[in-house]
Amino acid sequence: MNTETDNSPGLRLMELLDLLTRHAQPMALPEVVALTGWPKPTVHRMLSQLEQGGWLVREPDGRRYAMATRLLRMAEAALSNSTQQGVRHAVLRQLVAEVGESCNLTALSGAEVVYLDRVESAFPLRLELRPGTRVPAHCSASGKLFLAWMGARQRRTVLDGLVLTRYTANTLTLREALEAELEAIRRDGHAVDAEEFVEGLVCVAVPVFAPGQRTVRCALALQAPAARMALAQARLQLPRLEAAAQALARTLG
Questions:
Q1: Whole-number Å distance between alpha carbons of 138 and 150
Q2: Under 8 Å CB-to-CB from 237, ≥6 apart: which residues?
Q3: Are the beta carbons of 3 and 15 closer than 8 angstroms?
Q4: In what order do the strands lie in the sheet with 56-58?
Q5: Is 189 helix (H, G, I), strand (E, B) or coil?
Q6: What's the predicted TM-score (pTM) here?
Q7: Which residues on neighbouring strands pair with residue 107, listed in sequence order?
Q8: How many CA atoms lie within 13 A of 233 on its CB side?
Q9: CB count in 10 Å sphere of residue 216
Q10: Burial of 211 (0-12, 13-18, 19+ CB in 10 A)
Q11: In principle, which of 48, 64, 86, 90 could form an S-S bond with 26, CB 3.0–4.6 Å?
């Protein structure tokens, strides 16, 4: 087993866990030593650490190590999360098929919006924004949505530290104008980007609430070139966006 790049003790422990889970059966110390090629004292120490941490448990014979409940629960959670991501992506794909334009799911990170998932339209004219992309909160539909649904004190703190950079002629750079729009967003239940971040690009966003709460967990948005879908046309898709947001909210449960 190649371990040249695994110098960190933490990484070594993770690699050992990976090995044991892939082996899919309890293993004794000599077997683990043979598989890893690591020194016996090192392997013994690592197995003891994982046992003490609740990741491994001894078999009744006292010799072989098996996955403990803690490790099984982590594996189940990871599988569940992967399944939920697949469901969320399927909801986005269906929404794009209905509206014909790119749609994305975002979360708030500090004073920026980060893309969690996105499905592009089939049209050649589009702005590709991959998951992990960050955009400013004050000039994006999703960002303004998050700001609008914050508590008054939290919103004031965020806005106090926010630089209202101008990106286009339509960017709101006056705090009073931005706060007035945030009040309208809270009242109307959706937010728009009227070519405020990228000239020629419009966007409509709706909140994805936490199950049984009025806390905004994510934002679901439709994005389109204004030449192909005017903002007024994008707003006509709000019922479809809201239905998809409700479907996404169920995956958060």
A1: 13
A2: 99, 204, 222
A3: yes
A4: 27-28, 64-67, 56-58
A5: coil
A6: 0.68
A7: 114
A8: 13
A9: 19
A10: exposed
A11: 64
Query: What CA–CA distance (Å, rounded) separates 179 from 159?
Result: 9
Q: Would you give per-residue pLDDT tens digits along the chain (253 residues)?
A: 444 444 577 788 888 988 887 776 788 999 999 989 999 999 999 999 999 998 898 877 788 888 887 877 776 566 545 556 788 889 999 999 999 999 999 988 878 888 888 888 887 665 666 667 789 999 999 999 999 998 888 899 889 989 999 999 999 999 999 999 999 999 999 999 999 999 999 999 999 997 777 778 899 999 999 999 999 999 999 999 999 999 988 877 5
- Amino acid letter, residue 136: P
Single-letter amino acid code for the residue at 45: R
Contacts of 111 (CB under 8 A, 6+ apart): 136, 137, 138, 158, 161, 162
Other C-beta atoms closer than 10 Å to the C-beta of 16 total: 24
Identity of residue 240: R
Residue in the structure block whose two tokens are 């966007």: 203
Which residues are paired to 65 by β-bridges?
27, 58
Tokens (6 digits) for 97:
């098929």
- Long-range contacts (CB closer than 8 Å, 24 or more residues apart) made by 30-38: 32/65, 35/1, 36/1, 36/3, 37/1, 37/3, 38/1, 38/3
Q: Which two three-digit tokens encode residue 173?
A: 């750079």
Alpha helices in 55-188 (DSSP H): 69-99, 141-148, 152-160, 175-188
**Of 78, 62, 82, the residue nearest 70 (C-alpha):** 78
